[in-house]
UniProtKB/TrEMBL annotation:
Keywords from the UniProt entry: Ribonucleoprotein, Ribosomal protein
Domain of life (superkingdom): Bacteria
Pfam families: Ribosomal_L28
Name of the protein in question: Large ribosomal subunit protein bL28
Organism: Microbacterium oleivorans
Hydrolase in keyword set: no
Amino acid sequence: MAAVCQVTGAVPGFGHNISHSHRRTKRRFDPNVQKKTYFVASLGRKITLNVSAKGIKVIDARGIESVVKDLLAKGVKL
């Protein structure tokens, strides 16, 4: 599963691990992406979204109907 949130668009960040001796090695900061299933009354079915923890909070605040409307306007296939 790709580490990209369908709601917020959060993608992995990149940086360094820094050891005690201060040597740097590359690392990747992945967002907390989870697969969640929501029932959308306007579509009359369940949809599965890959959403980050912040994306779940956005859905709770705005409502799934509003978020799905925006996703369909962007052209995201559900």
